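Why run this: before we spend reagent on co-expression, it is cheaper to look at a predicted model of the complex and decide which construct boundaries make sense. The entries below are exactly what would go into the expression plan.
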Amino acid sequence: MSLSRRVIVCLDVRDGRVVKGVQFEGLREVGDPVELAQHYERDGADEITFLDISATIDARATLFDLVRRTAEQLFIPLTVGGGIRTVDDIAAALRAGADKVSVNSAAVYSPEILAEGAARFGTQCIVASIDAKREGTSWRVYTSGGKRRTELDAIEWAHYCVAQGAGEILLTSIDQDGSRNGYDLALTHAVASTVTVPVIASGGAGVASHICDAIAIGAADAVLVAGILHDRVSTVGALKRALRDAGQSVRLVA
Amino acid sequence: MRITVFDYGAGNLHSLTKSLGGEGRDVTLVSNPQLALDTDVLILPGVGAFAPAVAAMAAARDIMRSALQAGLPCLGVCLGMQLLFESSDEGDGEGLAIFGGRVERLRAQHVPQIGWNDIEDVNDLLFARSSLRTAYYANSFVCRPTDPTVVTAWSTHDGDRFPAAVRAGNVVGVQFHPEKSSTPGVRFIEEFLQTC
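The model came back. Tokens follow.
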């Protein structure tokens, strides 16, 4: 046997509460992060990701306090991202109880954060988070929560991040995020079939078949899911049973 | 029961520390390797790199080795398991050599191995008692023991079969992260503490 395909639940956190954006706009609150994380572990989530979308520096302390409280109650991996700018930020997140840290804008503006983070803490805890938007036949990298366009090609950028020391790629389609129309399968496949590290498909899950497609067609190792779970359109258990029925290897909880 | 987690400056110890706790248990983090041996159970945690971890325990390496050989129960997790071997391709330094053999890079297309993998060919009751069949891994290196009979469970990543767990008396090493393997993983730790 080999590695199971993972269902990772993303909780967008702002000022210690969970919110979920639709195309990065129009935020609304959905619940307490620690309770939700535990709920999703019981339901069979393979990992939890906290994406901090707080705008202020003060919110850092709130976030790390939340990470600490969660790590003491959660016995599956926890990734923390959002606003990570320096290797010291990575150290602080890991010390607070994160198992992995995802880096997005900082990797674009100071790429050495990936190599330095990997050298200090190991590649397995450095996740390169890439927000990509389709432009014709390719995809452009955006930063700053999807607001700022860069000159980087998403596929080339993914390869560069892996060469620098990223142990995983979290690949979000800005076009699909919040649409519930399915993942960007072409984007996912273009990255997942050519890098040597696991790729997490993100943005667009609406029904279980989207998740099966991201893995079977997109070649993703894992999928990130948020809105359809928080809105109770589906459950982690139902998504994983659908994956199993589609012939994928998954971890099912009793 | 006094349980000591040897803190060599590695990452997240919160979940591990929490999973060791319970009634009548005194769990402490100790960064001095000599003082860490004044305990009933020693835990070698699992995040970091081989060379700095070995350097952190170098001053007490010989007495730590003697204590484990004399029967001090020990659970080594991930890198903590690798520290129980002689040496590593990942970095210089001398491991505890409780197990003969070397730590080598995974011979796989996808490295690091990140995710949940099946536990196979089990020969240790800790797995059955905890119902741990799939465990969470985050590693680029694995142990290659000279004596395969020390291996009590295996996993396979991209065709490379490697030891998931090893045992020598009360010294147990696991390549996966039980503290990140949900309820069965936490039960595995509990079973180890109850039976060691």
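Chain A touches chain B through 37 residues (CB under 8 Å). Chain A has one domain: 6-245. Bring this page to Monday's planning discussion.
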